């Protein structure tokens, strides 16, 4: 985000590069910027939009990530969907803004959003794996070796090979893995 870049002294412009809004901060990127709003408006019923758009950032995140509500007729878990969409919005915003200077910066964006989402240790590890896979696929790597310190993440990814996983994250990881020629996963004992 430009606000953060200015704060760290690595930029002088804190306007949103997409819409020109004065302060490009997390709330703006995830909820206010037209790129984000277009997505939310398609998902949130009109009668619920006032509540959705006028919460403080913290309330908004907490309420949506902790709700037990499901979405649509398929009963998709809304908190999970909300987290994934927020992550995608964040990622798209960054890839637009930082297309030239990607690399290491992208990893720090991921840590920031995962931190805000308040995920469990396993989820954090899975988000990390997902992000690493995403970057590897961007670079057209055909052979991928995943190394994880998390025994749980290792098992979850391995087990999903045999049976269908209930975790959306795991399913997405497997979808991405199906695009490479060969992949394997290691859990190095420490
Ligand atoms: Zn904007």
Automatic annotation (TrEMBL):
InterPro entries: RNaseH_domain
Residues annotated as domain RNase H type-1: 120-190
Superkingdom of source: Eukaryota
One Gene Ontology molecular-function label: nucleic acid binding
Protein name: RNase H type-1 domain-containing protein
Species in which this protein is naturally found: Gossypium stocksii
